[in-house]
Specification:
By secondary structure, this protein is α+β, with helices and mostly antiparallel strands. Helix content is 42%, strand content 14%. It has one domain (9-97).
């Protein structure tokens, strides 16, 4: 997390982390790239942290998931909660079932 400017961001270079979650919908076109992670993060925000929906933004690319915000505390709260949710296989799989292919 970059804390040196008026906004902060964090990135995940995609590839192996939680790939098995994305593989469950590979037949629909999900590959586990940055845009797929962004779709998952949007569902997470909408359902688990709706108060941050308009505060946390995304700027992902094919090989990188990136979230940013001018509210550093909100971004940190999102990052920690999203990571914890990713570690809960049943919850993250359930959320991913509602992600939309970008």
């Amino acid at each position: 997390m970059d804390r040196s400017s008026s906004s902060a961001s964090f990135c995940l270079y995609v590839g192996e982390y939680k790939q098995e979650v994305f593989d469950t919908r590979a037949d629909e076109g999900f590959e586990g790239g940055g845009y797929d992670w962004e779709s998952l993060a949007i569902v997470f925000l909408e359902e688990k942290m709706p108060e941050l929906k308009d505060i946390v933004n995304f700027d992902s690319e094919a090989s990188m998931f990136c979230a940013y915000s001018s509210d550093k505390k909100a971004l940190e709260k999102f990052a920690i909660s999203f990571k914890n949710t990713c570690e809960d296989e049943s919850t993250i799989t359930d959320l991913f079932s509602r992600a939309e292919l970008d």
